[in-house]
Amino acid sequence: RLNTWESLTTGIAQQAKGVIAPKEKTPFITFVLGGPGSGKGTQCIKIVETFGFAHLSAGDLLRREIASKSADGAMILNTIKEGKIVPSQVTVKLIQKEMELSDNHKFLIDGFPRTEENRVSFEQIIGVEPNVVLFFDCPEEEMVKRVLNRNEGRVDDNLETIKKRLTVFQALSLPVINYYSEKGKLYTIKAIGTEDEIFEQVRPIFAAFEVCSQTVG
Ligand SMILES: Nc1ncnc2c1ncn2[C@@H]1O[C@H](COP(=O)(O)OP(=O)(O)OP(=O)(O)O)[C@@H](O)[C@H]1O
Ligand SMILES: Nc1ccn([C@H]2C[C@H](O)[C@@H](COP(=O)(O)O)O2)c(=O)n1
Ligand SMILES: [Mg+2]
C-alpha cells in the first residue's frame, strides 16, 4: 500500500478515483505554530492570498467533525472545551484526508503539531517532515485579549478555557517548537503590531523559497 507521501507525489490515490490529474510536484509543507490567539489563522489567510498555499487548520477540521456529528464529534467537543489535545490519530487522519483531496502541493498546516505525540504521529502516518515551521511568538496578555475579543462563538473562547490552553501550550507545544528550532527549520515571527506589519515578517520567508524553487526549476 502506498503511504500518503507516495500517493501525494504520484497522484495514484486521485487517479484511482478518476477525478484529479497526477500530482507532479513534491509536497511543500509548512507547520504554523503559536499560542491561542497569536494570529495563526489571520496570517494563514494572507499567506494563501499571496503565495497560493492550501490552508488546513487542524482546529477547523476538528470543529467540522463536531458539526457533522461524526463518531468522534462528542469526544472532540469535550476535549476542546477542556482546552486539551485530541488524540493524534484522529487529527492526523483528518489532515491526511484533506491533503489527499487537494490538488495543491503547498500546504499550510495551522495549529499542528501541538504535541510531540502529534509530531511523531504525522511523521509515521504521512511519512514526511515539514519544510518550514512558523512560530507566532506573542505575549500571553495580548493573546488573551485577542481571544476574548474574537466573537466567533467558539466554545473555547472564554477565560477559563484560555487559561487551560495556555498551560497546555507551555507544557506540550513549546517542546515541539524547540525541536524544530534545533533542526534549523523554525522561523520565529514577533506577533505584535498590526496584521500587515506582522505579514511583512512572514512574506520574505516564503518569497525566498519561491526564488529557490524557480532557480532549481
Ligand atoms: N495583529 C493583530 N492585532 C490585533 N488583533 C489581531 C491580530 N491578528 C489577529 N488578530 C485577531 O485576534 C483574534 C485571534 O486571531 P487568530 O484567530 O488568527 O488566532 P489563532 O492563532 O488562529 O488562534 P487559535 O489558536 O485560537 O485558533 C482574531 O479575532 C483576529 O482577528
Ligand atoms: N493539533 C490540534 C489542533 C487543535 N486541537 C484542538 C484543541 C485546540 O484547543 C482546539 C482549537 O484549535 P485552534 O483552532 O486553536 O488551532 O482544537 C487539537 O486537539 N489538536
Ligand atoms: Mg486559529
Search tags:
217 residues; alpha/beta; 10 helices; 58% helix; globular; binds adenosine-5'-triphosphate; binds magnesium ion
Give an overview of the whole structure.
It comes from Gossypium hirsutum (Upland cotton). One of its GO terms (biological process) is pyrimidine nucleotide biosynthetic process. Pfam families: ADK. The protein has 217 residues and is an alpha/beta fold. 58% of the residues lie in helices and 12% in strands. The chain has ten helices and five strands, in the order H-H-E-H-E-H-H-H-E-H-E-H-H-E-H. It has a five-stranded parallel beta sheet with strand order 2-3-1-4-5, with helices on both faces. The longest helix has 24 residues. The radius of gyration is 17 Å and the shape is globular. About 5% of the residues have low confidence. Adenosine-5'-triphosphate (ATP) binds next to helix 3, helix 8 and helix 10.
Write a brief structural summary:
This protein is of the alpha/beta class and 217 residues long. It is built from 10 helices and 5 strands, in the order H-H-E-H-E-H-H-H-E-H-E-H-H-E-H. It is globular, with a radius of gyration of 17 Å.
Give the number of DSSP strands.
Answer: 5
Q: Helix proportion of residues, in percent?
A: 55-70%
How much of the sequence lies in strands comes to: 5-15%
* N-to-C CA distance: 30 Å
Strand order of the largest sheet: 2-3-1-4-5
The value of Rg in angstroms is 17 Å
How confident is the prediction overall: mean pLDDT? 91
**Bound molecule kinds, no repeats:** adenosine-5'-triphosphate, ligand LCLUPRNS, magnesium ion
Helix count, DSSP H or I runs of 4 or more residues: 10
Shape: globular
Q: Largest sheet, if any? A: 5 strands, parallel
Structural class: alpha/beta
Task: Name the helix and strand elements from N-terminus to C-terminus, one letter apiece.
Answer: HHEHEHHHEHEHHEH
Ranges where pLDDT stays below 50 over 5 or more residues in a row are: 11-21
GO molecular function: ATP binding; CMP kinase activity; dCMP kinase activity; UMP kinase activity
EC number: 2.7.4.14
Cofactor: Mg(2+)
Keywords: ATP-binding, Cytoplasm, Kinase, Nucleotide-binding, Nucleus, Pyrimidine biosynthesis, Signal, Transferase
